[in-house]
Prior knowledge:
Growth Hormone, Chain: A, 0% strand
Amino acid sequence: xxxxxxxxxxxxxxGDSGPERVLIAASFVNRVGNGLFNAASALYFTLVVGLxxxxxxxxxxIAGLIGLGAGIPGGHLADRRGARTIMMAALAVxxxxxxxxxxxxxxxxxTIIATVDQIAxxxxxxxxxxxxxxxxxxxxxxxxxxxxxxxxxxxxxGTVGAGLALAVDTRGAYVTLILGNAAxxxxxxxxxLRLPRYPVLPAPQQQRRWIAFSDRPFLTFTALYGAMGxxxxxxxxxxxIWISEHTEAPRWTIAALFAxxxxxxxxxxxxxGSRIETPHDGGRAFRIAGLLFLVSCPMMALAxxxxxxxxxxxxxxxxxxxxLAEVWESSAAFALGFGLAPDHAQGQYQGLLGLGFNAGxxxxxxxxxxxxxxxxxxxxxxxALFFAALGAAGPALARWGVRTRSQPGGVAAxxx
Length: 416
């Protein structure tokens, strides 16, 4: 009796239905593999394979740029052929391409294999978005929040595993990480076999094939989402450089900020995200995120003007506020990104949203290191105002999007 009750409560934490638990488990496994690989990939190609860092960077940049274009057609294919089928195919390609990386001995081989991997990743990401909608059940916001919680946890565990392998620092350890990531793709694809075959939703007659490109509210949201995505490299890139070069905070603060950010997102995502269900909720959450970033960025800047322990405390307090903003922003993105997309074209819309986000991530290092670091405190204040302005547009965008979808003809009424 007690055992059954405990099992039921644990099942509720992971998901409310079999398909929900399957997709959460598959996503978790996939992200553990990502954590293993991302922490060690650059070191493997430079230290073990012996490629110059410039060549490794160029290969990954080329692969990333080519992969940007695969999300939208991959998502459209998921809409028309089934999201589970396309996602499983993409995962199979990624498993093979990842395993092939251990055979790389030249820049050309790395570029080709990484490009194949990025194309599959973009197509699979769009299909994953469409699959999330079909699996979400009666409380999609709660499911999406739980899903992101376990995704973040998977990355953390994978990164910890990578850290242990990096401490060994042998070719075998690096190869094990890469093959572990390949195995995670294969296991993820196998787990998806346990999902039902969701029927393809028919598109309205005489509708444009690439409807997402004509949906002005969603295109606007894609641009806002890509721009707001600069908040992620603030933690992973900008703040560590700022701490090391402009503050007296001890170096351990850098490791602590990653721990605080990851732990806070894991612990609060479900509590906050489960309440943000509709596009209107998403618009308000986007505004809250912008206001929180308006607070966190100046706090990070002020750390340069305080003594050592005060600087450390201020940075940790800032990352706490920034992490809270990240949870609100990601929850808003779920509510708007899925809520404004028509059910029969979720894959195509998620592919477009992924394109906007990835483009923003590609531009982020240049923007943050040149403008923000170059201007110092002024740069941080401008970044804070930038995030606040983006967030302020959220409620109006949500109203515009909902209004156009409620008109006769739905989205087409606004795009024709």
